[in-house]
Amino acid sequence: MNDEGDHLTVETAREMDATDPLSDLRDRFYVPDGEVYMDGNSLGPFSVDAEAALEHVVDEWRELAIHGWTDADPDWFSYGERLGGRLAPMVGAEADEVVVANSTTVNIHTLVGTFYDPDRGEKIVVDSLDFPTDHYAIRAQLRQFGRDPDDALRVVESRDGRTIETEDVLAAIDEDVAMVFLPSVLYRSGQLLDVETITEAAHDAGALAGFDLAHSVGVVPHDLSSVGVDFAVWCHYKYLNAGPGAIAGLYVNERHFGVEPALAGWWGNDKATQFDMAMTYDPAHSAGAFQIGTIPILAAAPLDGTLDIVEDAGGVAALREKSLALTDYLIALVDDRLPECTVGTPRDAASRGGHVAVEHPAAYRISLALKERGVVVDFRPPNVVRIAPAPAYTGFEDVYRAVEHLREILDGEEYEQFDRQSGGVT
Ligand SMILES: *Cc1c(COP(=O)(O)O)cnc(C)c1O
What we know:
This protein has helices at about 10-20, 50-65, 70, 80-90, 105-115, 130-145, 150, 165-170, 195-205, 225, 295-315, 315-335, 365-370, 395-410; strands at about 35, 100, 125, 155, 175-185, 210, 230-235, 250, 340-345, 355-360, 375, 380, 385. By secondary structure, the protein is an alpha/beta fold.
């Protein structure tokens, strides 16, 4: 250990846990016994809060049946709008600019389909490191407009296979661009993009700016309204711990209220006239217009519980502060203890989301060896072990332990016992 590594002991990890103002939140989570859970950027764990909220709607369903739409507390009819209002401060939006609805991929379909206007320009700017479903949906929407996606998609390439340079995004934005649609945080390297600069550049070119916040919502604060982002989507089963397949979220800036959604449905109708059952759609004058069908209450209720945890933490800013301390500590440990690995995540806090990409040629097999030791991480091709010390339930000693396990796995070449073949969900 070198001098700089003197603070990287288990004792200092325990001291940081002892002074962590958020350490009590962990007791509200069902982190599987004996596991160091570092995969909350893929699926957050269950919590007593999510469980209570879910049991509450199950009880109401049993007791109220259809009366639950109006008589449940809170009522089911406006559940999506109400949850949107609770989420709004977490993304820096007005209450009526946010709603929970559909899945992330469906929300990309409806929002890109709504806001793509070939008269503004033909191109949609994306990047080469995007989460694939985003491209699948955008390409499908371009085909709906009779465009060849290979022509209309302008893909900003990565220079290093890990990150996207802001200047390369700006260089891709010109008068041929209708829309920029990018992630806030890249799912593999964890780079946090400069949402504000990109939005301004898009607007300067007469284009719209949309973002996929799946890897930042709940762990990185956003200022969507004041930055003027046009629209955004995200899921709630990652850092917001609302459960597998939980209802997703979306934001639409109020200047776009009243537009006709690409995927219209009765649940997006103005609530005052929804049950008039008119044959023509009358969009809600809010982000609520982008709901499609009946809200899946059982897939929305856990979020109502887990938002309590964020509020009790003091909001996303407090979670972000701890998250940065955890990832700083993780990066320092990797540098000090794991010289055979490379940190693929930007070191600058302003360019980093909530997880760290640890690169090694045997990453796939290392991720399996870690899992066998109870350290739950995931692998992303070609060479990344993603380690997500989610701030609501992860402590500094957990990070220390995860790196210790990794050190032992490398020392014993334990990963050699595993098949090189990759497949299935990791
Ligand atoms: C997790 C994730 C998704 C998931 O989309 P679903 O429709 O919920 O399956 C989409 N985009 C990004 C960037 C993600 O990280």
